[in-house]
Every structure is written in C-alpha cells, then in structure tokens.
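Researcher: Good morning. I'm working through a list of sequences from a screen, and I'd like to move beyond sequence-only analysis. For each chain I'm collecting a predicted structure so we can compare shapes side by side. This is the next one on the list. No need for commentary yet; just the structure.
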Amino acid sequence: MTQPTTIRRVPGPRPRLPEPLRTALELAASGVPVLPLRQGKVPFGNCPACASNVCGGRPNMKVPGPCRCPAPCHGWAAATTDPAVLASPPWTAAWRRAVAVAYHPGGAGLTVVDLDDADAIAWARSALPATRTVETTRGEHWIYRGAMASRNTVRPGVDIKSAMAYARYLGTGTGPLAALPDAVRALAVKEPSPVRPAPQAITVPARSGNGQCRHRTPVYLERGVAMAEQRITEARSAVHATVYRTFLAVLSTHGRCGCLTDAHVTRLFTAAQTKGESARHCTDAWTNARTKLGM
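Model: Good morning. Structure tokens for this chain:
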C-alpha cells in the first residue's frame, strides 16, 4: 500500500521587527528598562483607559500607581526589561510609530548627566570625573554607575536623569563607566535648584465691575485649568507648541484678574514636564505667553 505523502509546511520569513524594537530588546537583555518615544522624542500618552489618572496611577506626580495597563503608558514608569511585554501587540503598535528608544537610567542602576551645550560640557570637563560619554544632538550624556534622585536644571544647561526619569538611547558611547561621584550627588541637593522652577503667581488687579470677578468662581476656574492640563496631556505631536498655546489661552482667560495661584500654574508646569518638556522650556513658554499678552 502506498504510504500517504506527508505535507511539510515551509515556514515563511518572519516579519522584520521595527528597528527601535530590536534595539530595545537588546538593551532589555542587558538589564536596561526601555520604552518607546514617539514624534517629538517624548513618551506615548496614556491610553483612554488610563487618561486623567482614572486607572489609579499618578504619572503627573511621577509616582507609579497600581495600574497594570498592557500599553506603554505612564512615561518612565512603563519602562521594562520583559521581552514578552516589549513584543506584545499593544507595544509593537507603539514601536511601529516610535522614532527613538528611551531607557530608565535609575532602573538600570545608572545616572545620566545631560549636558545641553558647549558651555555645559566645558564645565563638566573641569568639575566632574571622566566617564562614559555619548554624543547627543546638542551636547553630551555623561553616564555614571549608580542611581540617585533626578533633577532638572541643576545649573545652566545641565540636567540629572536617573530615578523616575527617562533618557534617550543614543548608542553605547565611549569610555569606561565611572562610579557616581559625590560631585554629581551634590548637584541634586544644591540650592536654589528646584525640580522645576516655582511659577510666578499672577498678581495683576482684578477687573473693575459689579463685584467679584467671575473667574474666581471655583467651578469656572477649576474647569479651565483641568481642560488645559488635559490638552497638554493628550498632545500627540508638537508638544512645545501645544504647551505654549495652552499657557497663552489660560493667561488670556484667567490671567488679568488675579485668579491664578502658584498651585494652578504648578499643575500646568507638571503636565508639560510629564510630556517631556524641561523646566526651562516651561518657564520660557510661560514668560513668552505673558509677554505676548503684555502682562
């Protein structure tokens, strides 16, 4: 009896992984938590299920909550070394749109001193021990072995990225890793260098009229600030421009009557920084908006 012919299926070529995902998997295999960056080189915004922190996470306060969303939500807190997560459908969809890979330095036991310009680099060469160096678009990343608190604008053109922060991956760099020196740790506690600049309260007089300014109505003001936060948080592109336009709109509506307080402005700055804006960019955008309005 003739034996039946066995049909063997020849597997076709595996689909090619997006370049950012391949890089991410290599980093994750070495113990570096990674996440995708979208256009504008900022993390992907929260998915609808996590928008406005309804999931219980608190990304605007840089505190990871109990959220177990399968999407790359919550900025730096989403960084992972798990290849199964990185290659899962919600993440692969993000990797296909990603323009770069970021990593959580503190999660890898590292600290990045981000030097934005030539002056900052010159300062580092005179004040800090040599370590692994990676060229960036505008300056250099100096990477040290050891984690610490992150802090923006510790001096002109210098940020520290470690715990609860992300840094863009730009290659392996050159030179051996040096241990995190006390000189860098001291920058995070040196005053006056807050995590973000203290916003200026709007103190111009309220408009004259028949009594209390309508903007002082708690519901009216709260709704305006909340909508501004949401506009910034949901920005998918052109984050710089969105932050400026939002600041301009808030100041145009609420800025001339003395309604805004430091707490309101801090909420707007925090939303912008969660989208990847630096403290300096927030301050510049706020100042430019006030100038535009003649305030």
